[in-house]
Amino acid sequence: MKDYYSILGVAKGASEDEIKKAFRTLAHKYHPDKKGGDEARFKEVSEAYAVLSDKQKRAQYDQFGQYQAGGNSGFGQGFGGFDFSNFAGFQGGGQAFEFDLGDIFGDAFGGGSARTRRGRDISIDVEVPFKDAIFGAERRVLITKLGACDTCEGTGAKKGVGMTQCVACGGRGSMKEARSTFFGSFTSTRTCPTCKGRGEVPKEECGVCRGEGVLKRQEEIHVVIPAGMENGEMIRMPGRGEAATGAPAGDLYVKVHVKPDRLFTREGNNLMTALSIKLTEGLLGSEHTLHTLEGETKIDIPAGVAHGELIRLRGKGVPYGRGSRGDLLVRVDIEFPKKLSRAAKAAIEVLQKEGL
After folding, report:
1. CA distances from 216 to 71, 146, 153, 158, 172 (A)
2. Would you say the pTM of this structure is higher than 0.85?
3. Bigger pLDDT: 300 vs 112
4. Burial of 314 (C-beta count, 10 Å sphere; 0-12/13-18/19+)
């Protein structure tokens, strides 16, 4: 006698959700149309689920150790007796299941419906200086990709000739076809290979793209890098990917690589830099000219500033939101003299006597 609970790897008192989850996992794992699948194990798992997912069948199995339907389990003759009423929203034993056949058996049945077609997404990498990433910039990049044919303007037809209805699909753009699996025969819908989903074909093909409407070519892309971009961020440009016959173009993804800066680093919306000053400037205070990403600016060093202390210049950081900006944080590095003259040493000794 088969132990359906062991086959699904659940306890005898498992809930409906636990049984459903276990079956879903195993069905994906053992589906014969998948790489590494196991048809025998898949049938066994499906058989166990067909019984345990039905309250009446499960009760009979729990009581008698097996499920009998009119003197026959329904599984003795292979998969011909498998009850699909437990799947894809059908009612089975008074309970509904939200399983999607296209989700579990998509490789066998083609997903159950035609999917929306579009061109292939592509990605490129752009390297920008630190300053351009902070304040924004523009780039023009030359890439090679499938694009719409300029001669026929993407129709695939000779200019001035026009299109006619596709005979193969009757203008629907899709075709139904029967597919046979070990479950039986099923009908799936696929894009018409003749018109490639357009429902029409050129009366006379374009001599440049040979009726495809697209061809491989170089295209200059204008990329706008917004202010505040961080290293590794992506810019999505809808419709700038590869073109496709009779379908919308895919998207272009631009990955931004920010070059490190010698003087500045970034922490969120704030910029960080360092300023070296002399010991006397730190003790007495001073004014310095600080180099920033926007040019030079004056900065006041307060008397008695500590080594490593941060001075905040508000509104000098990374732009964000609508007109907002972070701050520029200046770390003060005090240069301590390695050698002292006699006069300097004497002066410091005086300070030491005063407890400073």
Report:
1. 65, 4, 14, 18, 28
2. no
3. 300
4. exposed
